Predict the structure.
Amino acid sequence: MSGQAIAKVGDAEIAGNRINKAALKRARAFEQHARGTVQSLSGKFAWATVAVFLGILASVSTVAALAIAGYVSYWVAIPLNAVLIYAIFAPLHEAVHDNIAGPIAACAGLNS
């Protein structure tokens, strides 16, 4: 198609004002099914995610303190902390999607 923009929603193509309605209907049904599945698997406070975050945070702090005190070489501490900081992405990712606090409004600050 020369000069016409094509957008994709799932596998539904939208070109100009023409919409593949059957594909759009399938995409919406898939989205509803996915949301129902995810909601049934979540909704509780994520204690495991909080524990992982605190464990990684404690590990980073311990490695830094040991390196500053001279018990661990910087050549060991820096790569080790780099791996730990990379691992902290998982709890951060869950927080971005508001998956930490669940339905507990008083703990909603953990999601930010």
Strands lie at 6-9, 12-15, 18-19.
